[in-house]
C-alpha cells in the first residue's frame, strides 16, 4: 500500500525508530541513515520521496547534506524536512535558505510531521 518513501536521517536510534513506527502507520515506507554519508548514499537509487534530516549528525551537518541535495542533478527536486532540538530562528532561516521545504523543532507533534510529509508528497489530495 505504501507508495512514498521517507528517508529518516538521525543518529539517535530511539528517536529514528519512533519516527519509523509513526510513518509506517501512516502508510509510508521508511529507510534510515545515521549519518550524512549514509544518507547521501541512500539517495543514489532514486527511491526516496522525502528526506527527514536532522541538523546534528556525526560526520556532516544536515545543512551540508541539504546543500548537497540541492546542488546534485537528479536530487534537486527531492523534498527535505529539516529537524533539530536546537530551534533557533537563525538555524531555521539557514535551513530554509539552503533549500529545506520545511523545518521542525524537536520534540514536535507527530501530527505536525505527518501533515508536512502529506503536503510535500501530495498524499491525501484525492481522499
Automatic annotation (TrEMBL):
Domain Response regulatory, residue spans: 5-121
PTM-bearing positions, type 4-aspartylphosphate: 54
GO BP field: phosphorelay signal transduction system
One Pfam family, short name: Response_reg
Signal peptide: none
Matches recorded under Gene3D superfamilies: 3.40.50.2300
Keyword annotations of the record: Phosphoprotein
Protein name: Response regulator
Organism this protein belongs to: Roseovarius gahaiensis
